[in-house]
Each structure stands twice: as C-alpha cells, then as structure tokens.
Design a protein that fits this description.
404 residues, TIM Barrel, alpha/beta, 12 helices, elongated, nine-stranded mixed sheet
Length: 404
C-alpha cells in the first residue's frame, strides 16, 4: 500500500482502477497485509505457542474468515451468528471460544451441541444455565470464567472493558466464590481463566498490571487452569506517528507469568490482524467552500463507517492521486447523511481536490463493515479482496430493492 507514480496502490492495483471497476463506496482488503499481520503475530509470540482465536466481531466476512482458517487460526465469537459463520469457514470447533455477557439459552445450547473448545462465562446465572443443559444431555461442558481485574487499559473509555464500572467479568471475590462452588461439578469443567481489558492498547504497561493481578488471583485460588485467555486489544497505528504495541515486551511479560503458571495462552486478536489491511474507497460528491473551511462531501457516510461518529475515532484520508497544489485552508471530510456526527476527519490543510476525485479512508479493516447499517435507507458497500493484481468481490454491494 503505497504511491507509485503519484497513484495510490493497494498491492498491484491503483485505488482509482478499483473504484472505476467496482464503484464506490467500497471496502477493499489486502490479502498480503492480512497474511503478513498473521505471520508477524505468530512469529513474535512463537515461544509461548498460544492458541490464536481471531475476533470475529472485528470482521465477519466469510472470505476473510476462510483466509483466517487457512493460516490455522481459531475464532473468538460473541453470538450464534458469529459461531455459525466461523464453522461455515471451516474453523475447527476445538479452536473456537464463545465470549459475551448475555448469551441466550438458544445460543448456549447451540454452542454446547457444536462441541466448541469452551464458553467464557461472565455470571453465575450463565453457569447455572449451562449446567442445566449439560445435565439434561449428560455432558460435561468446558467453560472459562471471566475475571474483571479493574485495570485501566489507557484507551478510549468507549472500548475499555476491564474496569470495575464496566459490565464485563466478575470481581475477585465473586470469581473465587464461583470457582469454589463449581470446581467439582459433574457437568461443568472449569478449564480457563479469561480476561480482556479493552481495545486499541498501544502500551505494554496495562498488560503488565493485568498479569500481576491475574497471578495473585491464581495463587489465592490454588487452582490449575488449563488455559489463560488474555483476550486481544492489541492496538494499531491509526495516525502516522502514533504508538504501536511492542509485541516483544508483551511476550516477555507473559513468559515471566508462565514460569509460575503451567497454562496455555489464548489470544483473541482482531484489529491487529485486519485493521490496517482495509480501506474504504470513496468519491467526492461535492466540495462546499465557506469562509473558514472546505467541506469535502463524500459518498461514504457514517452508515458505512461508524467509528468516527461512535468513538470520535480518527482515520487518515489519502488522495488517490497526488498533486503539488496545497490548499492552506481547513478541510472537513463529511458524509451525506442528515446528522452532524456524519463526519470523518478535520485537517488544517490538504492538496487541491475536485468534485469526482477518489479518496481512501485508511485502516478500516476492523470494526468497519461489521458496524455498517442501512441508516437513511442506504445500501451497504461492496467488499473487495485484492491479491497482487487480482481483485475479487467477496461481498456484493447491497441492492436497494433487498432493503425495501
């Protein structure tokens, strides 16, 4: 993903060529980037040999999941739908973890029937329901118990999950109480301690604090967990000079942790695998000039990419074709939806743009298409996978007639 002869290329295809062939807005993913992210992740953590379960909620496109399976990753799912599509992608059930605070009875029955690796439970009520189903079927079901370590991940409050005010996991006392109550159950097999403190974490220190707290909990419990599920949350560089999580430092922290705990590690990465491998290619509908700024109105909107409106997240926006004409005026990239929050990025200056130009919104491979909607009765965009000089539609552009 770079400029060649002033044209932005995704692998061997220019963004303008892709836009012309498939239309806009369109999500475009790089096969090579996903592949490299997976191999890099595996390489950095190879000495601890983790079970890597891709977070399906970050990107649930079937062809992307086929690619995930091709590299022998498992899946972390949070709904019956995600579990169904993971199985359809041929991901092995014994590599699937089912997480989430509110699994329905139907979802629990489905997961137990499919014999997945484990269900990460988040309340005693959930364990009671699992035990009932297991007893009725004369089965012993593998579960994990999610612990809330009250650890600040130093990330956006909207995506923090490991603090005591968050809805996720159990307090230390409740965790120990439930563990003691169910560890000898005939129908429940507690094999995992699960924790996940948040997303877009770019510093190893929150993970260090998390591991220290987990270690104390394990020591107090005197229980040998087969698995320690550390969740995901590894951040990427959304802005050019922003921090990126140091995998080596995190790995060394885990190696020290494993000297005291004989368990297998589970990771649930999503963003770090697909986040920077995705682009939203858009066209400029109009440029509206005011005294203070230029509004660059795109054919992409908050229904296509919700993160800026939902979190205030920032995504770089690049021109498909470079020129040397700089406009020293504020530019605000916005969508056409009738909402003030339908905006993407403000920049103090930008190169000269024209109506009809193509631009690229970067790093949208995670929590992009999965959060899209039909707000304002807008059809969802197409999804394209690029592999070298071949571009393939992996999800067709939604037709208006299918919504109506």
């Amino acid at each position: 993903m770079k400029y060649k002869n002033k044209q932005f290329f995704i692998e061997n295809l220019s963004a303008e060529k892709i836009a012309k062939k498939f239309g806009t807005p369109a999500y475009v993913y790089s096969y090579e980037k996903i592949r490299n992210n997976i191999l890099n992740f595996k390489k950095n953590f190879n000495t601890i040999n983790p079970l890597i379960c891709f977070s399906v909620k970050s990107n649930s496109n079937l062809k992307i999941l086929n690619l995930i399976n091709k590299f022998n990753l498992g899946a972390d799912v949070v709904s019956k739908g995600e579990l169904t599509i993971a199985l359809k992608a041929k991901i092995k059930p014994d590599k699937i973890v089912f997480s989430g605070v509110g699994k329905t009875l139907d979802e629990l029955k489905f997961a137990i029937n499919k014999k997945i690796l484990l269900i990460n439970t988040e309340s005693e009520n959930e364990i009671v329901e699992i035990e009932k189903i297991a007893r009725k079927n004369n089965r012993k079901v593998n579960i994990g118990i999610r612990f809330n370590p009250d650890t600040d991940a130093k990330t956006l409050k909207n995506i923090s999950t490991g603090k005591k005010e968050n809805k996720f996991g159990l307090t230390k006392n409740k965790f120990l109480e439930i563990l003691d109550k169910y560890k000898h159950s005939k129908f429940i097999n507690i094999i995992c301690l699960s924790v996940h403190i948040g997303s877009q974490i770019t510093n190893h220190v929150p993970y260090k604090n998390m591991l220290l707290i987990i270690n104390k909990l394990i020591e107090k419990s005197k229980y040998n967990f087969e698995y320690i599920d550390l969740g995901g949350g590894m951040g990427i560089q959304y802005e050019k000079n922003s921090n990126k999580l140091n995998y080596i430092k995190y790995k060394n922290l885990i190696k020290s942790f494993l000297k005291k705990n004989n368990s297998k590690i589970i990771f649930e990465p999503g963003r770090s695998i697909v986040g920077d491998a995705g682009y939203l290619i858009s066209k400029i509908i109009y440029i509206k000039s005011t005294n203070s700024k230029n509004f660059v109105i795109l054919d992409s909107a908050m229904n296509d990419l919700l993160r800026p409106a939902l979190y205030g997240a920032k995504h770089r926006i690049l021109p498909a074709k470079l020129n040397k004409k700089k406009i020293l005026k504020k530019h605000e990239f916005v969508g056409p939806i009738c909402e003030t929050t339908d905006k993407f990025l403000k920049v103090p200056k930008y190169q000269k743009l024209n109506q009809g130009d193509t631009v690229i919104i970067c790093d949208v491979g995670a929590y992009g298409m999965v959060l899209s909607s039909n707000y304002n009765m807008r059809p969802k965009p197409a999804e394209i996978l690029v592999n070298k000089d071949l571009a393939k539609v992996i999800k067709k552009r939604q037709k208006l007639s299918s919504i109506i």
